[in-house]
Amino acid sequence: MAQEEKSRSGRGSSSSTILQFVPFNSLADEGFWHRLSSLKLNKYGIDDSPIPITGFYAPCSHSQVSNHLTLLAESLPIGENDQSSMPAFSRGNRNRCPVPGTLYNTNTLETFHALDKKSLLKEEANKIWEDIRTGRAVEDSAVLSRFLLISFADLKNWSFHYWFAFPALVLDPPATLVESKRASEWFTPEEVKSVSVACNGWRNSSLTADVPFFLISIASNSHATIRHLKDWEACQADNQKVLFGFYDPCHEKDPGWPLRNFLALISSRWNLKSVHFLCYRESRGFADMELSLVIEALITAPQGLNDRQLVPNAVGWEKNKNKYVSRCINLAKSMDPTRLAESAADLNLKLMRWRALPSLNLDKLSSVKCLLIGAGTLGCQVARMLMAWGVRKITLLDNGRVAMSNPLRQSLYTLDDCLNGGDFKAFAAAKSLKRIFPAVEAKGEVMAIPMPGHPVTNQEEKSVVDDCNRLYDLVDSHDAVFLLTDTRESRWLPTLLCASANKITITAALGFDSFLVMRHGPGPFSSAHAKTSSADMDNLTLSDKGRKRLGCYFCNDVVAPTDSTANRTLDQQCTVTRPGLAPIASSLAVELFVSILHHPDGMFAEGDITNSTSSSGSSEPPLGILPHQIRGSLFQFSQMTLVGHSSNSCTACCDTVVSEYREKGIEFLLQAINHPTYLEDLTGLTELKKSANSFNLDWDDEKDDYDDDDDCVEI
Amino acid sequence: MCVLVPAEVCSALHLMFKPHKLLLIFFPQDSNEEEMCAVEEEAGFCEIEGAADNATLVQSKHHEAHFYDFHIVYSSSFRVPVLYFRAYCSDGRPLLLNDIEKDLPACSSKVLLETKWSFITLEEHPFLNRPWYKLHPCGTSEWMKLLCLGDEVAAKNGLAIELYLVSWFSVVGQVVGLKTPLEMVKSQRN
């Protein structure tokens, strides 16, 4: 035959080189591991018997990148039946030639490493050899590329250890390369055209598209036809040039791995010495004769290949970066439900930013640390709302335990939290937040807040001092504090600490059917508001630019009597409120907080009122106005915004009190706690009340000043 | 490229997109290997017979490449086609959005930032139930209307599915660096 003549011309055995093959590359898709995990959990359990799987590959389709042997979710059996003969995939897909394989999935990492790799490889190679011997490989040639996979799936941290092997029967002595050329150079121009047409036809027919080994028979008129391997004898009958073709996944100038077992088949089955191969490669879905190779090889009849008792040796474990070690892939980011929940939550906020609020600062929201004082109706709702805004660091402080009546109104608790005397609210709340969204950093602090005018005994004094220090540390280590308790006195110490440290402070207070939500102004000692002489107590604190700082919750105490009716309901201890009130107030508190975060002046911003033009003069902030106080009533279904400036006599935030605290520290606090009138004496409130009662004229003057500050707008 | 649409659209698409695998490959400047776990080398394995033979070609430095799969899925709630995609390395490790954004053409990241029409989100693939990235469809019908505004024939008779898809793809493709050849539009119009 022409082939034999070609092989003898011009090449002596001394100059012949060993035919070398480019190893197969594996690619296990994430979907494969996902499906394996679910099968392992739901079906296999601890059963580690070998699993029949299917790999997929296709001819190389890019001149710079080789194709892989790919495993997908469909590679694993369907799972319902134990002996599922029905494949999970459909045939005839030109991009997915199915190849049988075996998976050994172990139960521990130790077992994985202890697997006898040599014998496993030999076992798979034996199967290939059997298929060659019995002729099955001629009928279903894909079995020539049978592969092996060992794995260990660590489902706790979504790591997968694995190792592929592509068993190749070793020819001994190895085949030698006579000549390797581009197909476009080896064939005549007519042949090139005809072969291309024939190949494209083979690839386009769903009957043959996924058959990776074939024969190309070229007639004397250059007409090429592609035939199945089993038609070999028929091809011999006509006087034709016959090449062995196969889908070559490799893009390089050397042939790909599937050729190895093809060679073994050819030499053992048809006992040929000299063969021509077409390493078929494609480009953009069509045969690429530039990329495809025609290789002429010589096979010396190896010992024992015809001896049915002797099985050839095999090689084929996949290298990992040039070493013979297993691989490991971690898929936590795309498989761990917690991480998926996190990215889904982020998605929501990002959508908001994209569609409605481009200036939304998600980084600020996710990094701000919020301290919630009180884990009751207000605390639970505020915590949930903060999480919905993407806040991830939340600390809840509460001394109490969950009571049987709580779950109805306090949205983080369920009946289980009430049993056995009730869990500590702070801990139960933090746990509940984590159940809702595992990625939240929620912490509970169980402690009582020292309160002014509630004297303590000597024995109690130490723990009160500890509580003060603990509260100081908590305020110091957070960026924003929400005052959500149900008594007035319990808000005093946190307010003072926040004023001294200039932390964002939000107060929410409930009456039966009315609420107050406000943000405290900055403390008296901050860069935006210069400290005035402490001697001058009759003037309001003025900044350099003549702006007054906004008041805190306690500044209201000195507001003109016109507001006292509104105040009275708020100051009382209210455990009975209309259920709808707490969620409304909580939501407003959180929205107010987010607005502060997005205002260029932050907590130093002026107080807006509804329908006001922006006080800062710049373009309108995207989240709208930033009020100081919001007071609402369910009785009227109404809500209004107010502005109140700080008072020089405020028992919590005036500069006298804050500087006294800064100077005397715990001593000052103990004084305030133990002596009911201490604060009022210190701030001159006592004096103020006396003068208010005795001098109408003075009172009127002061009233005028205050009137300017109170702009009430009914909505 | 895989296209998943209602049956009546299938045949139209079959003509348009030859069913071959669309392989989009980016070669990153620096190949990073963070996600691979530390692998201990198995002691003595190399000495075991059968690890390699002369016929195994020792490969030179392996180029790290990123592979992209694209699916076009019809969204019945938005009633427009949606481009889904995912990216992974040659070992199957999925790529995250910040890696993908480095691969996208420079002008594309600009497009993503500036226009209101394109936004990449991570959502569950409707058929494969795995997280895939997609170009959010909520602006699609608006900009498709704008795109076809100047076309009198379209205004009168509506757009044939094939032409619609080619036009749609010519826009979304740009975001992921896929250019639609002009011939494709011309052939559809005839």
UniProtKB/TrEMBL annotation, chain A:
Residues 19-335 form the Ubiquitin-like modifier-activating enzyme Atg7 N-terminal domain. Residues 352-602 form the THIF-type NAD/FAD binding fold domain. The keyword Transport applies. One of its GO terms (cellular component) is phagophore assembly site. Its main location: cytoplasm. The active site is at C574. The keyword Transport applies. It holds the Pfam family ATG7_N. It is found in: Cytoplasm; Preautophagosomal structure. Transmembrane segments: none annotated. One of its GO terms (molecular function) is Atg12 activating enzyme activity. GO terms for biological process: autophagosome assembly; autophagy of mitochondrion; cellular response to nitrogen starvation; piecemeal microautophagy of the nucleus; protein modification by small protein conjugation; protein transport. It comes from the Eukaryota. Keywords: Autophagy, Cytoplasm, Protein transport, Transport, Ubl conjugation pathway. CDD domains: Apg7 (cd01486). Belongs to the ATG7 family. NCBIfam families: E1_like_apg7. E1-like activating enzyme involved in the 2 ubiquitin-like systems required for autophagy. Homodimer. This is Ubiquitin-like modifier-activating enzyme ATG7.
Automatic annotation (TrEMBL), chain B:
InterPro entries: Atg3/Atg10. Pfam families: Autophagy_act_C. Keywords: Autophagy, Transferase, Ubl conjugation pathway. GO terms for cellular component: cytosol. The keyword Transferase applies. Gene3D superfamilies: 3.30.1460.50. Belongs to the ATG10 family. This is Ubiquitin-like-conjugating enzyme ATG10.
